[in-house]
Amino acid sequence: MTVTDEPVVAVRGVTRRFNDVVALDDVSLDIAPGELVGLLGPNGAGKSTLLSLVSGQRKPDSGVVRLCGQDPRLASARATLGLTPQETGLPATLKVREVVDFVAGHYPDPVRTPVLLEQFGLADLAGRQTGGLSGGQRRRLAVALSLVGRPSIILLDEPTTGLDVAGRQTLWAAIREYHASGGTVLLTSHYLEEVQALAHRVVVIDEGVVRADDTMEQILERVGLRRVVLHTTGLPAPDAVPARLTGVVRASQEGDRYELYTPDADALVREIVTSGLVFHGLEVRGATLEEAFEQMVTHPAADLHRRSAPADPPAADPAPSPSHRVNQDGAR
């Protein structure tokens, strides 16, 4: 992997329209070498459109996109890129090792096939045709192909969709290993806990506009709420808790376990202790990424111009690259 001081990804004032609908509205974003960035947003926010611009599958209507300092539609730029789209077609009659060998043959210094398959828990499936793989196994293979050429950056669009817990942990370990070696990662995910577990920086896109771009810690601090967790049989149903305890804005319950959300955890704990409520296991915790995400896309800053954006359209046929050729041939 090549390491430079310039951004691996540079998006400057980019707008992309589909007919009369604005999918991305004056978006700017830099990703430095070695960053692991989580891209969050509801369906139709513009995430996949942004990835399609960075990977050279589409070009912006206005603004500039650069991948490792080059136009991402150039083959020399895409040689630095590993990509796993949301849907990946694989040639059903080729064996797993054959697919990896084919893609590896397009790179000067690829990861050895046995090493890559072992890393992704696919070594025992090397001789199986891809058409005989489960959905989770195909997904692991798709992510493995993004790493075969030792890229400078990988773009992962919903990488663990359809995986069980063990498969997800295997992919997380591979992503962390790649990042620890100096690689740059930009991933989207509907699993907020996945982004919270992996990403050091979070970019939130909603309706084609960047709502937030900060470290994970700063994103969580934006929520302004704390969680007070306790076990008790002395509280009413969650909807009635705010009337019982001052400062509780909402509550949830599972058995005798309550989660109480409040802007002033200290005051709430004092009230609980002095109220005579019988409880145990009291904890005060910060907000989760899910709460921060919900607040940012539901209550965006007033000075942000809101635009109507469509669901991300299907990816256009990309300019040729080794891994894309395999994916397209298998899908046709």
What percent strand? 15-25%
Number of strands: 13
The total count of helices amounts to 12
- Could you say which overall geometry the principal axes of the C-alpha atoms support? globular
Mean pLDDT: 85
Radius of gyration: 23 Å
Distance between the termini: 32 Å
Structure description:
This protein has 332 residues and is α/β, with parallel strands linked by helices. It folds into two domains: 9-220 and 306-326, P-loop containing nucleotide triphosphate hydrolases (Rossmann fold), CATH 3.40.50; 225-286, Alpha-Beta Plaits, CATH 3.30.70. 31% of the residues lie in helices and 25% in strands. The relative contact order is 0.17.
Give descriptors for this structure.
332 residues; alpha/beta; Alpha-Beta Plaits; 2 domains; 12 helices; globular; disordered C terminus
How do the strands and helices of this protein lay out in sequence?
Blueprint: E1 9-18, E2 21-31, E3 36-40, H1 47-54, E4 62-67, H2 75-78, E5 81-84, H3 96-104, H4 113-119, H5 135-147, E6 153-157, H6 165-180, E7 184-188, H7 192-198, E8 201-206, E9 209-215, H8 216-221, E10 226-231, H9 241-244, E11 250-254, E12 257-262, H10 265-274, E13 280-285, H11 289-298, H12 322-331
Parallel strand pairs: 3-7, 3-8, 5-6, 6-7
Antiparallel strand pairs: 1-2, 1-4, 8-9, 10-12, 10-13, 11-12
